[in-house]
């Protein structure tokens, strides 16, 4: 009986360790999509939707709560799409590859690439070329068509759901 108890504890510890590692992988993917500019793109898309809807559905007494909801939940919806995108990256890249991608985007060259590629220094351009010449960079380029397709499906579903939610709140 004591052996069964010890084995149960060992199994539980291994399971918790495994789950913790998976969470770390997911967290690193979320960091990556924030660092590489993806989050900013979805923030911009959200802002554009609000702008478009404001001309179609001006704020009135009947939809003020809907507008308040839409104006205060941008972060929630952007976080939601980032979480929905994580499995796409987890399926196509290893945890180590995501860590290397994060390293690049946390560098000065990576940060400048996201802010304004045209203002990259020569040194930053060399870093960018080095990154895309690495195994991880080559894999990113190789996976681009797959990523574009899979991210497109996730984005389309998110956009449709967001639009339908907004319409139901603002009509």
Blueprint (SSEs and pairs):
Layout: H1 2-35, H2 38-56, H3 64-72, H4 74-92, H5 95-106, H6 108-116, H7 122-133, H8 135-170
Helix pairs in contact: 1-4, 1-5, 2-4, 3-8, 4-8, 5-6, 6-7, 7-8
Strand content: under 5%
Number of domain modules: 1
Order of helices and strands: HHHHHHHH
| Gross geometry | elongated
**What would you call the structural class?**
mainly alpha
Average the pLDDT over all residues and give the rounded result: 89
* Helical run tally: 8
Low-pLDDT ranges: 5-19
N- to C-terminal distance? 64 Å
Helix content: over 70%
Number-wise, the strands total 0
Describe the protein's architecture and organization.
- With 171 residues, the protein is mostly helical.
- The chain has one domain.
- Helices cover 88% and strands 0% of the residues.
- It has helices at 2-35, 38-56, 64-72, 74-92, 95-106, 108-116, 122-133, 135-170.
- It is elongated and about 55 Å long.
- The chain starts with a helix and ends with a helix.
- The relative contact order is 0.12.
Keywords:
171 residues
In short:
The chain is mainly alpha-helical and 171 residues long. The protein has eight helices and no strands. 88% of the residues lie in helices and 0% in strands.
